[in-house]
Amino acid sequence: MTLTSALNIASSGLAIAGLQTEVTSRNIANADRPGFTRRTVATVTTATGQVRVGSVERSVDAMLVRLERAGRSRLFAATTRAEGIATYTAHLGQPKDGFSPAAMVEKLQTSLVTLSALPSQEAAQLQVVSSAKDVVRTLVGLTKALGTVTREVELNLRYDVVAANEAMQELAALNRKVSTPMDALTKVEIADRMSGLVDTLSEYMEIQTVTNAAGMVSVYTAAGAELVVRDQVFDLAYDPATGRLTAGALDLTPGSGGRGIDGGSLAGLLDLRNTMLPAFSDQLDGLAAALIRGFELANPMTDGRGLFTDAGAPYSPLRQRGLAARIAVNDAIDPDTGGSPAWLQSGGATGVAPGDRSRIDAMFAAFSQVVTVPTGGLGTGLTLAALAPALIGGQQAARANAEATAETERAASETVTAARTNFEGVSIDDEMQKLLLVQQSYAANAKVLTTVSNMLDTLLAAV
């Protein structure tokens, strides 16, 4: 080995040691920074014995990354559904809760029992009217609560679409940047940021990625719809009129076909907006329809209406949608609107004996009659008395199932996330040991340089 080659080898060793020191120091400094991935320096030995930087690499396990992102998508979808349902069902209550529709219907049934014993007593008549108003207030209140949740879902859909589009635009910009020449440390910093953006996108929808040799990341939905292809972005768009989500010309709405998304908060919000909340609304409308129609059949007034009306009108199957927001107590019976509660006993007819309780008993019997109106999927063969508990039971079961699914997905996601963090994260002890080895390498190379320098000085002095 010549003195010149020794100098070159030692000099390259010092350069590598300097880079390794910088990389290791950055690992230590960023150990607690979210999204930071541990870096290592890969070296290459040349034919002349010199050491060159092969690359600065991020410690990444592709399988763990895919599993963690898929789990994150499922978790966000399940959590979004559970939170949306829970917000509404908090107003619904359980069958035995005093504010639930089941309790209000039962209270009405009890007040009719009292009125049957005292058919001409005004206080008993007023109690029936008051109980009927409580039923109306409960159904209208639940409809309003459902509307509030729906509006929040709509707002969150808009926010998530904007946030997802911003992440995709930034990713496309980084794709353009990463394709240009740059130093190794800058390249891995950009790669970290790109990975973080893809992680963020996985919270909105289930995705898959393809990375080319230049480090450009293309993103697709799990079903293959294009979102980011190199530096081209297919922006998401949400149509509140139809409840549709699109990327470019493709429909990504869950249940729309082969390209529909089924993971992430966007899928959860769209499920709530298009399927779950409308189903709850249909069931409330079914209960309102059963009350209006049941009492129309049991005790029709002289004008054909019963205890309850559709905003003053009789029941029409063509107007059942939205009925829970319009149900009202018959104004002919309500003293607050100029009506007479005595119509409960007489039906508005003349010549009815004061002790006649036939109409009242018919209204009480209505609770044991099988409902003949659509119930929004609650089932057939239900009586009016059983309909409200069935509604509460079904909707609370949907909440419980959604929460159980969310907890299951959370446990699975946390396990994979911990594994990914352990693989990609920084161990301070390991990095300090690396620093000691780098320092020893630096000292050895410096010693070689000093020795060669002294040898050259001795040779020059001997000439």
Task: Tell me what you see in this structure.
The chain is of the alpha+beta class and 463 residues long. The chain folds into 2 domains: 3-59 and 427-462, no CATH class; 67-411, no CATH class. The protein is built from 10 helices and 11 strands. The strands form 4 sheets. Strands 3-4-5-6 form a 4-stranded antiparallel sheet. It has a 3-stranded antiparallel sheet with strand order 7-8-9, with helices on one face. The chain starts with a helix and ends with a helix. The relative contact order is 0.15.
Topology at a glance:
Layout: H1 3-29, E1 39-45, E2 51-58, H2 62-92, H3 101-117, H4 122-178, H5 184-204, E3 207-211, E4 217-221, E5 226-229, E6 232-233, E7 236-239, E8 244-247, E9 250-251, H6 264-298, E10 308-310, E11 327-329, H7 343-346, H8 358-365, H9 384-424, H10 428-462
Helix pairs in contact: 1-10, 2-4, 2-5, 2-6, 2-9, 3-4, 3-8, 3-9, 4-5, 4-6, 5-6, 6-9
